[in-house]
Amino acid sequence: MGAASSAKVLATGSAWRLTGRAAAGRRLVDAVNQGSENEQTIAAIFLVKAGDRAVPLIHEGLTAYEPSPTLVEILGSIGTDTARLELQRVASNGSPDLAQAAQRALRTLDEIDRSQS
Fold this sequence. Notes:
Layout lengths: L1 H18 L2 H13 L2 H14 L4 H7 L7 H10 L2 H13 L2 H21 L1
Helix pairs in contact: 1-2, 1-3, 2-3, 2-4, 3-5, 5-6, 5-7, 6-7
């Protein structure tokens, strides 16, 4: 079942890239929140590659019953201004685990900015 469900996430990610349908993107966010480690990794790759297009869907995913801190890490990997704004929101309003992950991601992005200037 593991390989089949990983293949399903891969197909969903490919469909999202081709069509841009939010429902497919939401399934990727769900895979991060509830999937196996392989499913989470595959979904995360698609979400990071999508950049700002993924941020609203990640925002929705962060309001789930038990959101994964991996969603916050994905925002840090996206690293755009839109992703930073969402990280700042989570850092100040999220659960302690999510807020801590958001603060780490923001520190990392700040360090990257400093090293590039």
